[in-house]
Structures are given as C-alpha cells and as structure tokens.
Amino acid sequence: MRTRILVVDDDAKITSMLKRALTYEGYEVEVASNGHQALALAASQPDLIVLDIMLPGIDGLAVCRQLRAHSDIPILMLTARDDTADRVLGLDTGADDYLVKPFALEELLARIRALLRRRSRGKEPKILQYSDLTLNTATREGKRGARTFTLTAKEYELLAYFLQNPLRVLTRDELMTRIWGYDFSGESNVLEVYIGYLRSKLEAGGEPRLIQTVRGVGYVLKEQQP
C-alpha cells in the first residue's frame, strides 16, 4: 500500500503543487483547505500530515493540538513566519518538524522521508486479523489458523488492504488504484490474477473461502454464508 499524506493549506497553488510532486514520488495524497476539513480527513489516519499554520476557521496550531490529544501521526508544519518564537510554539504544540515558506521542494521531500523513517522505526509489529486469518505487518507472514504462508510484495499489499477493510465491498477500481497506482489503466486482468494467488494460499489447507466475489462490483473479505 502506498504511504498516505494529508496536505493542509488554504493556498490552492501550494496544495496543487504539493499534490503533483508527492504523487510523482509515489505517495497517495489528500488535500484540505481549512482546519475543519483537515480534522475530518485526519480521522482516516494518514501516515503523515503537512499542515500550514495560517488556516481559515481553525488555525493549524489548533488542528495540531486537537490531533495530538489522540494521535501520533507525524506532522510537518508550514509557516510564512520565520520567527524563533513561532517555531518553538509550533513544536511545543506537537508538530514533529517545521518548515518556513518559501521552501525548496527537495527539502520538503527530504523532511517527509525523515519523518516517515522515524515513524517506521518506532512502530510495534501490528497484527491484522479477520476470522482465522492473520497477517503480521512486521514479518509480512500470513497465517490461516495454525498454518503459515509467505506472500510476495503485491500479494501482501492486497491482503493487508482486505484485512484493513473487512466486510466492506471493495470495487475493482479502488483496488487497482490502491495497489497498482493512480495511473494504472487498461483492461488488464492483473487484479483477478492476484485474487487467484491469494485464494490459493488462503485455501491451501482446505479452508473455506474468505475473499468473495461481488459480481459486477469487486470483492469483499467475509466468511461464506452457510
């Protein structure tokens, strides 16, 4: 799965530029133009937030403060004010890093990479589970009951996305975009091929099917109905 970044700025030129640049770098990008939108989109737990201080309605400092009450998402704060007191205030509010406008795009990208590396090192292994299926996100090892199986990189991404969205019908377009990228096009049957790979591994011990086909729509991770 691609790393998700939320960009929050009321300057449409900046958000457009950052979305293009970050998408080109392989990130999945969402954009908010005010504090209320930022808090709503942050509820989906992006991997990192680029947050401008000067926002209409709820400013960036207030957004940061509210997020820090319940979340440790890395926050890179942007500001047009190059003042020590402002930088200290932003960091004390909970920002992980601080960048003054105008900034070099290369520096912004480097700071984002550094924050993501820091977050990755601090993460505990996470176990995703549905029914008797588990996936260790640290070792990328899958288990069906007591039986273990290995996964290729794309198989892992696809299975992890199913496990993060159990019982929800995932459309073909959504899966293609999430796993193979926003610009994947054509009539390729690559998704169907990988669904077949996963089913073979999940059902190798004779277990009942967990990835169900929703005809004309996509797929859903759920137990078969008797």
UniProtKB/TrEMBL annotation:
One of its GO terms (cellular component) is protein-DNA complex. Residues 125-223 bind DNA. Residues 4-116 form the Response regulatory domain. GO terms for molecular function: phosphorelay response regulator activity; transcription cis-regulatory region binding. Residues 125-223 form the OmpR/PhoB-type domain. The modification 4-aspartylphosphate is found at D52. Keywords: DNA-binding, Phosphoprotein, Transcription, Transcription regulation, Two-component regulatory system. One of its GO terms (biological process) is regulation of DNA-templated transcription. CDD domains: REC_OmpR, trans_reg_C. May play the central regulatory role in sporulation. It may be an element of the effector pathway responsible for the activation of sporulation genes in response to nutritional stress. Spo0A may act in concert with spo0H (a sigma factor) to control the expression of some genes that are critical to the sporulation process. This is Stage 0 sporulation protein A homolog. The gene is mprA.
